[in-house]
Specification:
heterodimer; A: 245 residues; alpha/beta; Spore Coat Polysaccharide Biosynthesis Protein SpsA, Chain A; 9 helices; B: mainly alpha; 80% helix; disordered C terminus
Chain lengths: 245, 133
């Protein structure tokens, strides 16, 4: 297996060194791309100085567009597995092996790292857990996906999921919708326990009045998912195919 | 008949404004700032407004046909529907444009990383078959 670790990062210059250190310790030699989502701080420079490959977006696309950039790299550079690991340090690179195991065994196309399987680590707040439960229910009813932690941004993708996500990936609050997309495209899902940490620097982008809006917006996307042909046809521009120079 | 629903002064001012609008749209098309395809709704709606302003009887007839008692209400109704359709069309166009620029930005990021790898003397692309698409 040639896994690629995709690290979406928007103004994470302070958090990246710890992420890079964790990756060095737990996944030495693995390919990493830091997707700099139009940061205004030194994210790209810090990532490069840490010896990480940087995919620097010229404008801020949001988490969906940033993560998809990583999947495009994976799809065009011969990677048969990809792991999303947030650049804010909330995910533990120690979980990489467990996330990739079901893909290596051929048992799953998309593996979600869940906080709630063993209830270890940062468990989020009560109101947020209620929202997460609701999204789980919607995913089960509308997409037939059984997932306990649909908003988790820690996930691993096999070749079929990489191809799907390189072609089409939701944009605004993509995590639950990406699961719906994968499930409806016929991919096999799995979940493994993961420990997450409360963030060290910065604040969640979903706070205050945005939290209910997040739930409404995502519920909408899950209740009325795109038509089936959108899953298979080229809904967006075809992913670039490049020959080896 | 005519001066009952549209006083002469208002009619003349309206015709003048509509003629200016028509001229403006035509100028945008001629200077290729507005594609002909996009300009058609504007040209047609402006011409229709010109016709109704020049011959208000047309509006009275049309309102009677669709069963609206006050002709101006028929005009307002039609205008609102037309404007809403226009805004919806613009929203669709804007999100298509956003999707395209998203893909362009992603391509830029990939190409920049590849160019930098090549400049550093590294091979950015591994040998072997590409992924199954």
């Amino acid at each position: 297996m040639r896994p690629l670790v995709i690290v979406p990062a928007f103004n994470e210059a302070k958090n990246l060194p710890a992420v890079a250190e964790g990756l060095r310790r737990h996944a030495p030699g693995v390919d990493v791309v830091v997707v700099d989502d139009g940061s205004t701080d030194a994210t790209s420079a810090v990532a490069a100085s840490l010896g990480l490959r940087v995919l620097r977006l010229p404008v801020n696309l949001g988490i969906g567009g940033a993560v998809q950039t990583g999947y495009l790299w994976a799809a065009t550079h011969g990677h048969d597995a990809a792991v999303q690991l947030d650049g804010d340090g909330q995910h533990d690179p120690a979980d990489l092996e467990a996330l990739l195991a079901p893909i290596a065994r051929g048992e799953a196309d998309l593996v979600i790292g869940s906080r709630f399987l063993t209830r270890e680590g940062f468990q989020s707040t009560g109101a947020r857990r209620v929202g997460i439960r609701w999204l789980s229910l919607l995913l089960r009813l509308r997409a037939g996906a059984r997932v306990t932690d649909p908003t988790s941004g820690l996930r691993a993708a096999g070749p079929r999921a990489i191809a799907l996500f390189a072609r089409s990936y939701p944009s605004d609050y993509p995590e639950p919708e990406a699961i719906s997309l994968a499930s409806r495209a016929g991919l096999t899902l799995a979940e493994v326990p993961a420990r997450m940490r409360a963030r060290v620097h910065g604040a969640s982008s979903i706070r205050g009045l945005l939290a209910p809006w997040y739930i409404i917006r995502v519920s909408f996307g899950l209740l009325w998912p795109p038509a089936r042909q959108a899953l298979h046809g080229p809904t967006e521009a075809e992913p670039p195919r490049r020959a080896t120079p | 008949m005519t001066h009952d629903i549209l006083p002469r002064v208002v009619q003349l001012v309206s015709l003048g404004v509509l003629a200016l609008l028509l001229g403006w749209v035509l100028r945008l098309v001629r200077s290729s700032r507005l594609p002909l395809r996009e300009s058609l709704p504007w040209l047609l709606s402006t011409l229709a407004a010109l016709a109704v302003t020049a011959f208000p009887g047309l509006l009275v007839q049309a309102a009677r046909v669709v069963g609206v008692q006050v002709p101006s209400n028929a005009l307002f109704g039609a205008a609102i529907v037309y404007l809403i359709a226009n805004v919806l069309h613009l929203t669709v166009t804007a999100s298509q444009t956003a999707q395209r620029s998203r893909r362009l930005a992603q391509e830029c990021a990939l190409l920049r990383a590849e160019v930098e790898a090549l400049k550093a003397g590294r091979v950015p692309l591994p040998p072997g078959p590409g992924p199954a698409a």
